[in-house]
């Protein structure tokens, strides 16, 4: 055995074997330690590398469209595969508006649910109810889409949209024909999908708020709601914002359910009844039919924009959630 | 009198807010009830033995099933596990055992961020690295896409569950002079093996219903797949295709398919939950 490893290296057994008669010292190398550690290290390393490679690969695959359109790609709204003119604005608009609507509907629902589950509900039903919320999060998005297109869209067309038109029709958002499918329906189905997500993250954040916070507020004579408002919510604020951003990240990238109910028309319309299109759904619909390299490359570039957008949103969200759930510094924790 | 009024106001606010939060919780759960109602009322009637054992019929012909899609989904999940499990588990072992440093923090962070990358983007990635070089849609490409999506989930759950293994077990093994890596392999991993199975199941439950990354990788197929480098059918793809079709017959088939898919996902979820329960009992015994 070659004793060439540096003295004291952990990869070698400290105490050599002595064979008395021959006066030879044998150092048995303990290869296992190093091999095992570097093996797991390599696999762990593969995760950051993978993210980087995904971004790089998409940037490379969209270089044709990047070179041809540059920044104008993001701000022009012509989407004409026949004449090779591509601008992603309608899709960016659709993604942002549908996600904004989803957040608007989802915020009160998910925060109310989280507060109910962690503070208000009788102790016996908290667990089962939280499980039901998790169940909602486990439903595959294509099933939301199926339900959206066959049940929700007809309901919207027959009842909700005519009602909105009759009551709020003077606003530009609620005008035009009611197709059932469209931006509003996409917002509704998206909110149904992200509510369980935001609710369960927020619930975890609220559960991480130390009991002493609550007791202090109650001891000062606060009612239960005053305790939540003054002692619990401010403490978990960062984490809740993080949970909301995680939900936003999901809404931005959600594909199937939105594709099935948004109407898929690359127009920018002020009315929420009008059909729209999102970045994810244009990729889903047109990728396999894209003829010509420029067309494909434009679609990949939309994917790249979506990738960067969700990375930023998710990174911020994770940082916020981590800061709260991994134990806050200082304060009244101990 | 004035203080009495304030008191009344505070109590009323408290009452209103507690009812409001209950109302919102109920509203959140309403879609769950609605979706289940429709899945059961429309799916059960279209679900029969033919559905589970036959190929899809052409438009207009009644009957037929999604047997190929059900098998296809199982194959795709299997392929995804081949890619996602080894990477995820080993990365999880690193995080739990050696990851108490800045690099570990980076990996944890990127895994969480990767979890949030839209599945359609992963689909594009799989398309560019598998479909383009091979010049065909294939089960393999679908498996790669789903496998990549599994990695962050498996990594994080493996890490969490390895951390549940009591320190005393490790110390006992180390005290016997067993090298660290052998301790990890034969004591820590053995103790946590049900936990690792659980992590795998969580990930499978998440990817089994994924549609978007399969659209331009596995592509779908109306017949039995003829190998791993050919397009393959998948249950979510079939549901999607049938749901956006204009035919009532296909709509009811889509409901039945959705019922099968959701049963699959929930069964996995239930199984996971049971395993997790037994996991905690291990910890409680210490």
Describe this structure in words.
The complex is a heterodimer of chains A (334) and B (286). Chain A is mostly helical and 334 residues long. Chain A has helices at residues 31-61, 63-69, 72-75, 89-120, 123-138, 141-168, 183-207, 211-219, 224-253, 256-261, 279-286, 293-325, and strands at residues 17-19, 24-26, 79-80, 85-86. In chain A, a hairpin with a 4-residue loop joins strand 3 and strand 4 (85-86). In chain A, helix 2 packs across helix 12 (293-325) and helix 9 (224-253) packs antiparallel against helix 12. The two termini of chain A are 55 Å apart. Chain B is 76% helix and 0% strand. With 286 residues, chain B is mostly helical. Chain B is flat and about 70 Å long. The model of chain B has no long low-confidence stretch (mean pLDDT 90). Chains A and B meet through helix 1, helix 4, helix 5, helix 6 and helix 7 of A and helix 1, helix 3, helix 4, helix 5 and helix 6 of B.
Brief sketch in words of this structure:
The complex is a heterodimer of chains A (334) and B (286). By secondary structure, chain A is mainly alpha-helical.
Q: What is the CATH topology assignment of chain A?
A: MetI-like fold
Instruction: Please work out how many helical segments of chain A DSSP would assign.
Output: 12
What is the assembly state of the chains in this entry?
Answer: heterodimer
Largest beta-sheet details of chain A? 2 strands, antiparallel
Name the strands of the widest sheet of chain A in spatial order: 1-2
Helix % of chain B is: over 70%
Q: N-to-C terminal Cα separation of chain B, in Å?
A: 59 Å
**Overall strand count of chain A:** 4
Termini separation of chain A: 55 Å
Name the CATH superfamily classification of chain A. Answer: MetI-like
Give the overall silhouette of chain A: flat
- Rg from alpha-carbon coordinates of chain A: 27 Å
**Largest chain interface and its two residue counts?**
A-B, 87 and 90 residues
């Amino acid at each position: 055995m070659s004793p060439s490893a540096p003295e004291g290296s952990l990869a070698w057994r400290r105490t050599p074997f002595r064979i008395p008669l021959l006066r030879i010292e044998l150092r048995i190398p303990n290869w296992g330690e190093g091999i095992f550690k570097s093996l797991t290290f390599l696999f762990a390393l593969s995760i950051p590398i993978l993210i980087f490679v995904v971004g790089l690969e998409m940037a490379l695959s969209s270089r044709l469209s990047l070179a041809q359109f540059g920044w104008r790609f993001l701000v022009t709204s012509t989407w004409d595969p026949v004449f090779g003119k591509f601008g992603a604005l309608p899709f960016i608009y659709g993604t942002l508006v549908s996600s904004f609507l989803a957040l608007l509907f989802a915020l009160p629902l998910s925060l109310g649910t989280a507060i109910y589950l962690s503070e208000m509900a009788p102790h016996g039903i908290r667990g089962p109810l939280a499980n039901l919320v998790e169940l909602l999060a486990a439903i595959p998005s294509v099933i939301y889409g199926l339900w959206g297109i066959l049940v929700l869209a007809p309901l919207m067309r027959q009842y909700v949209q005519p009602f909105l038109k009759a009551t709020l029709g003077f606003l530009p958002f609620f005008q035009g024909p009611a197709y059932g499918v469209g931006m509003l329906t996409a917002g509704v189905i998206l909110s149904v999908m992200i509510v369980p997500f935001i609710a369960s993250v927020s619930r975890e954040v609220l559960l991480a708020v130390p009991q002493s916070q609550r007791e202090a507020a109650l001891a000062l004579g606060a009612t239960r709601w005053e305790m939540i408002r003054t002692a619990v919510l401010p403490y978990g604020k960062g984490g809740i914002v993080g949970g909301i951003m995680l939900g936003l990240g999901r809404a931005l990238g959600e594909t199937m359910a939105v594709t099935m109910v948004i109407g898929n028309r690359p127009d920018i319309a002020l009315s929420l009844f009008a059909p729209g299109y999102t970045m994810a759904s244009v990729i889903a619909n047109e990728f396999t039919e894209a003829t010509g390299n420029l067309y494909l490359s434009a679609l990949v570039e939309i994917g790249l924009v979506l990738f960067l957008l969700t990375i930023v949103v998710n990174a911020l969200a994770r940082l916020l959630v981590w800061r709260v759930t991994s134990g806050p510094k200082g304060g009244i924790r101990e | 009198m004035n203080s009495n009024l304030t008191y009344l106001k505070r109590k009323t606010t408290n009452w209103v807010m507690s009812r409001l939060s209950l109302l919102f919780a109920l509203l959140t759960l309403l879609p769950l009830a609605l979706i289940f109602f429709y899945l059961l009322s429309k799916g059960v009637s279209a679900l029969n033995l033919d559905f589970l054992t036959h190929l899809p019929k052409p438009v207009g012909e009644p009957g037929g099933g999604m047997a190929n899609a059900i098998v296809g989904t199982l194959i795709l999940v299997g392929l995804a596990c081949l890619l996602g499990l080894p990477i995820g588990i080993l990365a999880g072992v690193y995080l739990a055992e050696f990851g108490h440093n800045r690099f570990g923090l980076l990996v944890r962070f990127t895994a969480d961020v990767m979890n949030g990358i839209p599945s359609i983007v992963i689909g594009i990635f799989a398309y560019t690295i598998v479909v383009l070089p091979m010049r065909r849609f294939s089960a393999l490409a679908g498996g790669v896409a789903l496998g990549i999506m599994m990695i962050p989930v498996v990594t994080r759950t493996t890490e969490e569950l390895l951390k549940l293994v009591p320190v005393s077990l490790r110390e006992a093994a180390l005290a016997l002079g067993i090298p660290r890596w052998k301790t990890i392999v034969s004591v820590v991993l053995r103790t946590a093996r049900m936990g690792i199975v659980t992590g795998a199941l969580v990930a499978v439950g998440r990817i089994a219903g994924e549609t978007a990354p399969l659209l331009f990788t596995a592509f779908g197929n109306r017949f039995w797949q003829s190998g791993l480098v050919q397009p393959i059918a998948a249950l979510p793809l079939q549901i999607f295709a049938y749901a956006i079709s204009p035919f009532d017959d296909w709509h009811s088939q889509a409901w039945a398919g959705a019922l099968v898919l959701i049963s699959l996902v929930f069964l996995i979820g239930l199984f996971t939950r049971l395993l997790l329960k037994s996991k905690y009992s291990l910890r409680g015994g210490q």
